[in-house]
Protein 1
Amino acid sequence: MFGSTGIGHEEGWHGFADIVLSSHDGVPDTISTTHINESQESATLTCSDDDCDDDYECSSSGGKTISDAKLFQSKTSAENRAVAQTIVFSFLQRKRLPEFPNLLIPNILISPQEFRIIMYDAVNDILMCSVPLPIFQPYPSNSLEIASIIILWMVLHHRIFCEGTDALIREMGIERKKIQADFKERAKEKFELYVYELKYGVQGFPFVQRESLPSFKALLLGVQLLPNVNS
């Protein structure tokens, strides 16, 4: 999709999605966040100073080299940005397309080697993230990982293949509240802004000198549905 990809609100999470993908009828319904193992400072969604994580400054403490620390910061920054964009875009879809039967909206966090699928349902307040999925088969093969490509294709056609969180909850046999993100409680007084005032296609956001809630540090969402996989 061509045009400005600015989403959000200057008094909350806001920034520019790297890629906006549209359906066959021209409706934007998927976004993608790119990560290329380098500084993301110029591309991150704006947050308050309190959101910055200084735990991994350039040092070799704890066995981490300077390069390792920078790589960790870059990857964490991309993941934080992807989560924020996923939540904002889902609330935007809820506002712009209320007739959608399923608002479990995906974001593809992709790097040259792998990708993860992050999905948020702004109606049922459920956030999910996949394990890292390799794009290529292990060395020395240079072939694509077919299973990952099929998953990616299904995500791009999520309106066909995704049945939403209701089907997931029935299949897993768990209570909805146990996997909810509690975003309303974490966003506090900013929650109404996310529901009613988010903007799409913004070319530039005005500077607002105030905290942009919620903090990334406070956003420990939901419960762990999948095991951790070191990428």
Protein 2
Amino acid sequence: LPSPPLRSAAPHASRSLQAEMKAHLVLVAFTVVVFTTCAEAYAPQPQRAMTTALSRRDFGGWVAGAAAAAASSTMTPSAAVAFDGSGSSAYSGRSPSSKAAIRQSYQDRVAADVRDFNALGAALAKGETKDSDAWVYFFNPYQRRSPDVVGRTYAALADFVGHKGDGPDLEGGDGYLLAATFTKQGKPPTNTPAVKSYNALFKAFDPIQAAGKKGDAAKARAAWEKAAGLFSTYLEDVDMPGSLDDPLYL
């Protein structure tokens, strides 16, 4: 009898090969997934690192700002806190040397304010008012970009009488603060000659500014002359040269 035809083994081999290839593909896919997951887990996170860096920088800036504000409030207290209202000066308890240093720092600033006041008077005498540099250096209400050589952060008037803060009272006026250093311990500052002369003086700047804003140099100069006399009295009461022509003010 003839032998039955032999069946080809190719289809079976083909199925085995396909199954083996599928297994390899599954393994490769699994390996890729695992590698990608691990890579993402351990790779640097630029966005997160940037956020952390910004947070640290912001925190450092806040700390620096808070330190600067604390130093400013300590070095230049407002007129409202220069006297605590209970009959004792804010300078009580300080050593003589520290009191002297505080007073000297205020005197240096006041001397610079007087120099700007003299420059204003000279400008008014020449008919110059609100458009002059001397006017800006005396009446400008805005804070300086940086303190000047004696530590003033505002123009002369704001430095002397104080500048507007968050509250209703003016802050940081060295004219009052200097006068308050002459108050005896246990006495209210209102009875101090230097404080009395200051209270008479600081009101005398308004007529100068009012006339100058209207361009009336003659009227502004007349008001300046009146303020100059009050300024001289104040300077004498705070142990500074009373004459505005003193070399300290030129």
